Amino acid sequence: MKIDGKTIWITGASSGIGEALTYNLEKRNCKLILSSRKEDQLNQVKLNCKNQENIKLLPLDLCDYDGMQDKASKAIAAFGPIDILINNAGLSQRSLISNTNFEVYKKLIDVNYLGTVAISKALLPYFIENKKGKFVIISSLMGKFSSPYRSGYCGAKHALHGFFDALRMEHEKDGIGVTMICPGFINTNVAQNALTEDGSAQNQQDDATENGFDVTVFGKKMIRAIERNKFEAYIGGKEAMATYLRIFPKLLHRIVLRSTVK
């Protein structure tokens, strides 16, 4: 499928991967609904675009589950039927299990998993009615295997795969597709915003993220994966190769431990 001219709803569009996707997709004549909690930053992203008439802003909080049906209705009202929902918004984590407050785990599940499920379920009836639609989920390599300091993040990302693999199976008959995008280290502010043991932001970059894949290049590769209707795509540096070692769990365990960065 060609993505040009599609109507696309992007969450987490105020920075990082979502922002980079916005700039790429608006050049391809897509109509975009941009969502995030940060309305000021969303406005700035829109101002940076040339085709502003093709962009609507829809601020939302993924933890507002009860409000998702209303948000879905407003998103559809912006340009008509939506072709693709890109579930990009989320939080990372940097803390040891033994030190992490339970509330941190709850927040990671609330945002990364339940919020993504809630917004997708709100849009699902419209996809079923139209007999077409695609869910794109920004998971992580950590959704395929785990790493120290990211226990809650890994758990939430693993859950996304379980849910959306089932959704793909149940609704293939309705013309609905699912593409799971699994980034490695991407040069964004994800590490700075990562939750620490008490729920506060880490507020510092790490070397692996700083030296990670360029976010613009990542966006182009991600769009190619969507157009090719891939079930899953692993995008990053050499760390992306680790996904193919899952059939050798002890070897993968040793490699991840040796290469772990906080």
Task: Write a brief caption for the model.
The chain is of the alpha/beta class and 262 residues long. It has one domain (7-259): NAD(P)-binding Rossmann-like Domain (Rossmann fold), CATH 3.40.50.720. The protein is 42% helix and 13% strand.
Number of extended strands = 7
Query: Roughly what is the average pLDDT, rounded to an integer?
Result: 94
Task: Work out the count of structural domains.
Answer: 1
The CATH superfamily label reads NAD(P)-binding Rossmann-like Domain
What spatial form do the alpha-carbon principal axes imply? Answer: globular
Instruction: Please give the alpha-carbon distance between the first and last residues.
Output: 39 Å
Please give the order of strands in the largest beta sheet: 3-2-1-4-5-6-7
**SSE succession:** EHEHEHEHEHEHHEH
Quaternary class = single chain
Structural classification: alpha/beta
CATH architecture assignment: 3-Layer(aba) Sandwich
Low-confidence stretches: none
Q: Would you state the CATH class?
A: Alpha Beta
Number of helices: 8
User: Could you say what the CATH topology is called?
Assistant: Rossmann fold
